[in-house]
Amino acid sequence: MTETDFSIVNAQIDALLTGETNPVANLSNASALLFDTITDINWAGFYLYNEETEALDLGPFQGKVACMHINNGSGVCGTAFKTNTVTRVKNVHEFPGHIACDSDSNAELVVPLEVSGKLIGVMDIDSKSLNRFSDDDQAGLTKFASVLASHLDIA
Ligand code: SME
């Protein structure tokens, strides 16, 4: 499989969002860039924390229709959010409480999104391939999320 050159992707997201202030537009293009540049993924997008419902709501994404709301602490996304921990799952079917939006997904990587020190949601990437995400992918995507967060004014 082709390795992703995150030095290029992360420079691209930074350039793309420089001077842009609309968070929906920025998250939309971030999901499109991820979906377009990372090989062997079937979903890339965001869940954003809703303070009124205390759950995660579906945000901009690329891929199949997905669940609209995820409770804090539920599934891979809710667990990553609640623990504020990058969560890499080799086989989602072995993850307790995994939420199967697309039954074809087998591996998942979720990165918490922090803006000005406040946790605002998560970035979620799915693949049909078991054990799809490497240490390098995790490091690169964690950096991607922090570059993206530096262009989000929604804390
Ligand atoms: N599988 C996720 C739900 C979101 S979808 O994969 C897009 C989870 O367990 O949180």
Structure description:
This protein has four helices and six strands. With 155 residues, it is α+β, with helices and mostly antiparallel strands. The chain has a six-stranded antiparallel beta sheet with strand order 3-2-1-6-5-4, sandwiched between helices. Helix 1 (6-17) packs antiparallel against helix 2 (23-37) and helix 1 (6-17) runs parallel beside helix 4. The structure holds methionine sulfoxide. Methionine sulfoxide (SME) is lined by residues 43, 66-67, 70, 75-78, 98-99, 101, 105, 108, 124, 126.
Task: Based on the model shown, name its key terms.
155 residues, alpha+beta, 6 strands
Strand content: 25-35%
Helix residue percentage: 25-40%
The molecules bound to the chains, other than polymers, are: methionine sulfoxide
Look at the structure and give the mean pLDDT.
96
What assembly state would you assign to the polypeptide chains in this entry?
single chain
Order of neighbouring strands in the sheet with most strands: 3-2-1-6-5-4
Largest sheet: 6 strands, antiparallel
Rg (C-alpha, Å): 14 Å
Q: How many separate helices?
A: 4
Structural class: alpha+beta
Question: Which outline best applies?
Answer: globular
**Total E-strand runs:** 6
Distance between the termini: 37 Å
The helix-strand sequence is: HHEEEHEEEH
Residue stretches low in confidence (pLDDT < 50, at least 5 long) are none
